[in-house]
Amino acid sequence: MPAQYKFSFGPWNISEGNDPFGPTVRPTVAWSEKLKVFKRLGFDAVMFHDDDIVPQIEEKAWPQIEREANEMKKSLESEGLVTEVTAPRLWEDPRTIDGAFTSNDAKERKWAIDRAKRCIDISNIMNCNIVVLWLAREGTYAREAKRAIDAHKWLLDAVNAMLAHDPKIRIAIEPKPNEPMDHAYIPTIGHALALSAISNDPKRVGGLIETAHSLLAGLDPSDDMAFALAQNKLWSVHLNDQNGLKYDQDKSFGSANLRVAWNQVRVLEQANYASTGAMVAFDTKAMRTSKPEHATRHLANSRKIFLHLVDKVRSFDANIEKQCIANRDYEALEIAIMEHLMGVK
Ligand code: XUL
Ligand code: MN
Question: Is the overall model pTM greater than 0.85, yes or no?
Fold first, then answer.
């Protein structure tokens, strides 16, 4: 029996539908309501930003943060859920307008490292040993605005400071090439794992690959996953979809390009990803047009499409693949896959 996939999403994946050109279009769903959605839709875990666990975290002292994190852990337990990952939200504070770990201001860089350490402490309370770093504002709008060589050294300093803060914590870097920045400093999984290799404990620095982020970098998400899997460094995935090179769309998994989605599932299957203990997260958003009563369908649909694709990968005739490869007949291989996906054969 192959290992069962475990699924997760984050509170921000049930959203109010605002975009850069318009306000919210759906009422805010209270956390207590969101919490009930997980099991109902067949999910096992929650991914959190630090301030999803402790709102207004900057206004609170540690004893209160500790108390609130413990309460959150209890409410998760009462639903039979666990925490998949935590992440310091370093991109909304006024101090990080010009970057967090790579801010030109040493005080702001220190603030960012302290906040990341506090996220690790919260993660420990939540019984979770993976902290995700999405390096949202570590980059520039004007290339000359920062000294990029220094910025890369500061990123390494930040990773090392986090590793030193807790000997058990693992850091999963979630690369993204742009948005909000024009150019981000760690745009691909190659950059992330290169940073890992020069860190003080490479075994504890890995990656999280988001479909849309790979596509925005012009890369194939399944090959990005393979690169990390070959090094045992794929510690989570944010599956979603993206219709070409535009803003980060966070569409339902497989909804824009089924063949690209199939290849992601195929590579996860080949690596027996589920047996590594890593989970499948869907970083998807409802379309802005979705009515409130339909605003979690993108999560159910992404999970459904994923599981259908697992069936498709498992039921594809391995002999066809072998023969086509032996004959170097990739046209035959391609049509066999397309017909299999279309269910016409
Ligand atoms: C941003 C993104 C974030 C991270 C979590 O594009 O993907 O949602 O996944 O902070
Ligand atoms: Mn993501």
Answer: yes
